[in-house]
Design brief:
Strand order of the largest sheet of chain A: 4-5-8-6-7
Mean pLDDT of chain A: 96
Largest sheet of chain B: 5 strands, mixed
Order of helices and strands of chain B: HHEEHEEEHHHH
Structural class of chain A: alpha+beta
Mean pLDDT of chain B: 82
Order of helices and strands of chain A: EHEHEEEHHHHHHHEEHEEEEEHHH
Radius of gyration of chain A: 19 Å
Low-confidence stretches of chain A: none
Oligomer: heterodimer
Strand content of chain B: 5-15%
Helix content of chain B: 25-40%
Distance between the termini of chain B: 64 Å
Chain lengths: 330, 227
């Protein structure tokens, strides 16, 4: 697929967030923020995205590292690598679901350079879109995946709106169940966005997958202490164990008192354009005994309203089973 | 051929393909390496870079193209385009062709090198992003007297490679693993090597080699402790 080496661009390596924001604001649509490069460089090699100016965030020390925050939660710099997250004792001890999710991303080498910020900000993996066709997401006026012949095995079950691409991230559902707050810095200053609202579907803006505006940079992810040390579950199903994006993944956090599920958050990836928080499941199982019957019921309620495409019917029982297991085994 | 030759063109010694395998004069390999190292333009290298060179000169405020790269313990001055990947720099600027380019998009692992002590895909890394880092390629593994690295020797002993194209990448992944975890379980080794494809399917042989290298490294440190 690689057509040539990358087209020319000017490379900037600021050493502060403010510097990066100023550059990105100056360059506007011609600019591009680069983290680990595992997604960006593919776009450049295919010459489908051709920024004139690339701002490499890798030299900004403030964006790296995992630290305890004052309120007892944990703050993760956006440029922290996935390897650092999967090996962090702090994350393993308190938010294991995120470490487990990070460990299932791509391959060891990609996790060594790939960042948590890049993993949640990566673009849609629909292969028609990636091929460079002029689809809705690319600014055109048709979808190539949602047609009778379209190869849409990897595409969505929920929330289709012209585009049927899915959220490809493994860490995103984990961040949603942990109720993470995304710290965003831009020309207008700093704002904090709950993970659930950070990701946006085609009904909000069909050409992007996050609520980041032009010139804004995701700087850190804050994990509140609400779910610290809860019971967790993460599972990813993909065609291959390495490299592959999820067909469906599931993340859950719950607290159990006695035999009853007290509190729960559960979210699935790769079934919708955003990580899908399964509120119906949460409502069904809260206050119920944590047993096989509840788990079965949870699975059934997870897939209500699913609208499969031609080739992705299999995702319905897959999602159902994963939810059942999450409730049963968390 | 000699008649229409332009005298201004650089004159290279003719490679002696007819001299037989034992010839010490100029093997094809040393000839090509020499040309690349001397900075002369091999035609394919020129082809790769001409298209991109034209626009990016004199970029205002962006990175300096000239940089000094720490490769295999040597400081190598090199002219690097802003959009150049580490794999391109290593292979086509520095002549370190042991690093292979398979897919050029982080999906095969043939280009794996160490950045610091960490295995990374050099095809998916901008050279400018690793300006101040220590880079180790397969060429940097040999000892001071040319002896093979313990992982390389283990690969030979276990008949690890078949066609050999993915081997440099496999070895670099194994070296990174053993630096971080000198006594891995077979399962840990399998996990660490999972970012390297082998189209021959020699995965189990490679795994055997990694486990043998771990054992050998272990024995080595025991001997040292005993002395």
């Amino acid at each position: 697929m690689s057509r040539d080496m990358m087209g020319a661009f000017e490379l900037y390596q600021p050493d502060s967030v403010d510097g990066a924001v100023a550059l990105l604001q100056k360059f506007g649509e011609d600019g591009w923020a680069l983290a680990g490069g595992n997604d960006s460089l593919d776009w450049f090699k295919d010459r489908i995205k051709r920024p004139k100016y690339v701002v490499d965030l890798g030299g900004i020390a403030a964006l790296k590292g995992i630290r305890e925050s004052a309120d007892g939660g944990v703050e993760i710099g956006a440029l922290t690598t996935l390897t650092e997250i999967e090996r962090s004792e702090l994350i393993m001890g308190r938010y294991k679901v995120l470490a487990d999710a990070a460990r299932r991303v791509a391959s060891p080498q990609i996790r060594n350079t790939g960042t948590i910020g890049g993993n949640v900000c990566q673009d849609a993996r629909c292969w028609y879109y990636r091929y460079g066709v002029n689809c809705y997401r690319a600014g055109g006026n048709r979808c190539y995946a949602d047609t009778p012949e379209g190869q849409n095995r990897e595409h969505c079950l929920f929330g289709a709106d012209r585009c049927v691409a899915v959220s490809p991230s493994d860490t995103a559902p984990a961040l949603v169940v942990l109720d993470a707050k995304m710290l965003v810095v831009g020309p207008k200053g700093q704002r904090e966005v709950p993970a659930e609202q950070f990701f946006i579907g085609p009904n909000v803006d069909i050409t992007r997958m996050t609520s980041l505006e032009d010139g804004e940079v995701l700087t850190a992810i804050r994990l509140p202490m609400d779910w610290s040390g809860a019971r967790f579950y993460f599972e990813k199903v993909a065609d291959r164990n390495t490299w592959d994006f999820p067909l469906v993944n599931i993340a859950a956090a719950m607290t159990v008192s006695g035999d009853k599920i007290e509190k729960i958050r559960i979210a699935a990836g790769a079934v919708q354009c955003v990580p899908r928080r399964l509120t119906a499941v949460e409502a069904v199982v809260t206050g119920q005994p944590k047993n096989a019957d509840t788990a079965t019921l949870a699975g059934q309620s997870a897939v209500r309203g699913a609208t499969p495409l031609n080739f992705n019917h299999f995702k319905i029982p897959l999602l159902q089973n994963l939810v059942t297991r999450a409730i049963r085994d968390a | 051929m000699a008649d229409d030759r332009d005298d201004d063109r650089p004159q290279f010694p003719e490679p002696r393909y007819d001299a037989g395998p034992l010839s010490k004069a100029t093997s094809r390999r040393t000839f090509i390496k020499g040309v690349i190292a001397s900075g002369a333009a091999v035609s394919s290298v020129g082809y790769l870079f001409t298209a991109a060179c034209s626009r990016s000169t004199g970029s205002v405020g962006g990175v300096e193209r000239m940089l000094v790269l720490n490769v295999n313990g040597q400081m190598r001055p090199v002219d690097v385009l802003p959009q150049e990947t580490l794999a391109m720099t290593l292979r086509y600027r520095l002549g370190l062709t042991g690093t292979k380019l398979g897919c050029d998009r982080g999906e095969c692992g043939a280009c794996t090198v160490l950045i610091g002590d960490v295995a990374s895909y050099s095809c998916s890394t901008l050279t400018h992003a690793v300006r101040n880092r220590a880079i180790t390629t397969i060429e940097g593994l040999e000892g001071p007297n040319g002896e093979l690295h313990v992982v390389q020797q283990a690969m030979i002993d276990e008949l690890g490679p078949q066609c050999g194209f993915c081997t440099p990448g496999q070895i670099m992944s194994a070296v990174a693993l053993l630096k971080a975890n000198p006594k891995p379980t077979r399962e840990e080794a399998r996990h660490a090597m999972s970012g390297n494809l082998c189209r021959c399917g020699a995965y189990d042989h490679y795994l055997n080699a990694v486990m043998r290298a771990a054992d050998a490294g272990d024995r080595l440190s025991e001997t040292r402790a005993a002395v």
